[in-house]
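Feature request, filed as a ticket because there's no other form

It would be nice if the structure record came with a short human-readable summary line next to the tokens. Right now we just get the raw output. Example of a typical job, pasted below so the devs can see what we mean:
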Amino acid sequence: MPTWILPVTLLLLSNIFMTFAWYYHLKMKGWGLLTAILVSWGIAFFEYCLQVPANRMGHVSGGGPFTAPQLKIIQEGITLTVFGVFSIYVLKEHLRWTDIVAFSLIFAGVCVGAMGKQLAPAA
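Raw output as currently delivered:
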């Protein structure tokens, strides 16, 4: 299995948790602010349980194929994709054409940032 698959999969799963942690409370109008914060923290715990291993496995210092900036750029691309789906299917908010253009431009940056040779692991 290529070394990039597991870290990217874990980043995808972590972003699903984080998107719910950050935005699901918008749908829950009956929740007070404290409830929204506590529920979000509880969900975010699972996000961290996936994101930290993804970054460790994916980084060149852990034998992975990515530099830290590449991991962050990939994570942002995944975040936009997950958020777009979440916005449409969970929040029932359609993306405007300007949102799609903005996401596309950022995603183009993700593609550029993910390119290039990996660095030698830090000693």
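Something like this underneath would help us a lot:
Residues 70 and 114 are 5 Å apart (CA to CA).
Residues 5-114 form one domain.
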